[in-house]
Design goal:
The complex is a heterodimer of chains A (258) and B (299).
Chain A lengths: L1 H14 L3 H22 L5 H25 L1 H8 L2 H7 L4 H35 L9 H25 L2 H16 L1 H11 L2 H13 L9 H5 L6 H28 L4
Helix pairs in contact in A: 1-6, 2-3, 2-6, 3-6, 3-7, 4-7, 6-7, 6-12, 7-8, 7-12, 9-10
Chain B lengths: L3 H39 L11 H7 L4 H21 L8 H11 L4 H12 L9 H14 L4 H14 L3 H12 L7 H12 L3 H14 L3 H34 L6 H6 L16 E2 L5 E2 L13
Antiparallel strand pairs in B: 1-2
The chains are: A mainly alpha (258), B mainly alpha (299).
Chain lengths: 258, 299
């Protein structure tokens, strides 16, 4: 456990040294600030625009961070040959993977916290006050974090399998497909072909369903996410992350370094 | 060389990970089903267009307006299909979606032709908005003046949905003058002008549509209309025979067997779908409940 924490901490320190991270945070904060301007040229939906644009900025830029840092988690260590010195120490490969995962997750949690603080600052600027009801936005932020947890798992898995560029492409593609899974299943049902229906149903359960976590529009209208959905989505993310990390460990255990 | 302990460790990690993989996937299915249920309970009918302007979408498409038009056309088809399955009577987004599609790609002929059918047909088969269908087709003709089939569709809506036979004849005539127009368009224009509203004219119209349809759903629809027209004609003939029977025998017939016995009919009459006709308690001929002919198409 201590070894996992140590690798995680090291990964976190390494991640925060990445310049791209700060660029993305600045862009996200600028976009959140721009939401105030967008709201001011609209009528009646200033608050909704701020929530929609603010949370979308957190989601998109966090996703970019998860992909661009996640894909280098393993491949960079191999490229720099630092993997040999790490694995020559009493560190198991599974611990290395887990440490890497939690290190990047910590980075994303802290960055999301910074962007969320920026969002609340913009909200305060717009409304001149903050109410308890505004905390409802945190439910969507939590779901965004669950998405990041899945994306990091995907990036880590692909990072164990292939080159950083292909890892980025695969992670992004799975993310996009994962947002359309409900449509893919519906398409399968509409075709009337039993084979296509079964194939799309298998895809529906096999790939990570990112659409489950899209509650930004809901909270933008001040609606609370039902407790059951909070619980079941947390469980879903936990199960899927376990699958991704298990697969990453399986691959990494078999991998030979020369 | 790998030591025995390391091999054992590697195998046990692989087993644990493999087991976790399988167990988590098995557990995912009921969790996802639970989420689906919760989300379905949350979902309301989403009858909104976030970007209602085709012009703005065209600018946002960064030169990919053709692809975007295809996506919007697919959305039209899905929207219409889902509404029909739900037997909805309101098709709020149909017109705006078609407008966006044709703004993005004014040469997308199928969007005008099918879109007009979707809009014009009465609910629950369609949106029941023939005026919107006319506008769509007029926009199509403005963007594609030489596409004579748009004139044919326009004339058809005037004829079938608006019962405006004079306008239908005028439009068929205008379409007949377009390059490549079928020669039958001129004949159609003349027939509609002379005998608009008669069953024979309607049959001619649907027969042409059936003959030239390049799509199964249009061919099927034309065939359904032709069968309904045939049934309507046969019902009128049977009503005449029932009246004659009553006059001659002094009492109404309770079934067509009596007409066969009395020599009015050679055999028990059947509708175009093969189901037997029946006599209602008020003495009129009608389709059997099992009939596949839909007379409502002629309303």
């Amino acid at each position: 456990m201590r070894r996992i924490a140590s690798i995680a901490w090291h990964t976190f320190k390494e991640s925060v040294r990445e310049k791209v991270l700060y660029n993305l945070i600045v862009f996200a904060l600028l976009l959140i600030g721009a939401a105030i301007l967008f709201g001011s040229i609209s009528v009646g939906i200033e608050g909704i625009i701020l929530v929609n644009l603010g949370l979308s900025a957190i989601s998109v830029f966090g996703l970019l961070m998860a992909i661009f840092i996640g894909i280098g988690l393993v491949s960079k260590e191999i490229e720099r040959q630092s993997i040999y010195s790490i694995l020559s120490k009493p560190v198991r490969r599974a611990e290395f993977i887990l440490g890497k995962y939690f290190g990047l997750l910590l980075t994303l949690v802290i960055n999301t916290a910074v962007m969320t603080a920026g969002f609340y600052a913009a909200l305060f600027y717009q409304k001149r006050t903050l109410a308890v009801a505004d905390l409802i936005v945190l439910q969507a932020v939590y779901f965004i974090l669950l998405q990041f947890a899945l994306v990091i798992g995907l990036a880590l898995l692909f990072s164990c399998l292939t080159t950083p560029v292909l890892s980025a492409v695969f992670t992004f593609c799975v993310y996009v497909i994962g947002n359309f899974l409900a449509n893919i299943r519906w398409f399968g049902q509409e075709t009337g072909s039993a084979l296509i229906e079964k194939a799309t149903m298998v895809l529906y359960y096999l790939l990570p369903n990112f659409g489950d976590f899209n509650v930004i529009t809901l909270v933008a209208h001040g609606q609370r996410v039902p407790g059951y959905l909070l619980l079941s989505n947390s469980l879903y993310a936990l199960l899927y992350v376990t699958i991704l990390i298990s697969a990453a460990i399986l691959i990494f255990e078999k991998r030979e370094f020369r | 060389m790998t030591s025995g302990g390391a091999v054992y460790h590697e195998v046990s990690v692989a087993r644990v990970c493999g087991l976790l993989l399988v167990m988590c996937f098995l557990a995912l299915v009921p969790v996802q089903q639970g989420i689906d249920q919760a989300l379905n309970a949350q979902t309301r009918s989403d009858e909104n267009l976030y970007i209602p302007s085709g012009t703005i979408l065209r600018r946002l498409s960064l030169g990919h307006e053709g692809l975007l038009a295809d996506i919007y056309w697919t959305r039209v088809v899905q929207y219409f299909g889902r509404k029909r399955l739900d037997r909805a009577t309101q098709f709020k987004l149909l017109g705006p979606l078609l407008q966006i599609t044709t703004d993005l790609d004014p040469q997308l002929i199928i969007a005008y032709r099918f879109g007009a059918i979707f809009l014009a047909e009465k609910a629950p088969g369609g949106a029941g908005q023939p005026q919107e269908a006319l506008q769509l087709l007029r926009r199509g003709i403005a963007a594609n003046p030489d596409h004579w089939r748009l004139w044919q569709d326009l004339g058809f809506i005037y004829y079938w949905d608006l019962k405006d036979y004079a306008s239908a004849a005028r439009v068929f005539q205008a379409g007949a003058n377009r390059p490549g127009a079928g020669v039958w368009m001129k004949a159609l224009a003349a027939t509609v002008a002379a005998r608009g509203g008669e069953i024979q004219t309607s049959r001619l119209l649907w027969s042409e549509i059936y003959r030239q349809a390049d799509n199964d759903s249009i061919r099927r629809s034309a065939l359904d209309h032709l069968l309904a027209l045939q049934a309507q004609e046969e019902l009128e003939q049977l009503d005449r025979l029932l009246r004659q029977y009553r006059q001659r025998e002094g009492h109404p017939a309770h079934g067509f067997r009596e007409l066969v016995t009395a020599g009015f009919l050679a055999a028990l009459p059947r509708d175009p779908s093969g189901a037997p006709y029946r006599v209602l308690s008020d003495g009129r001929a009608a389709l059997a409940p099992t009939s596949k002919v839909d007379l409502a198409l002629l309303q």
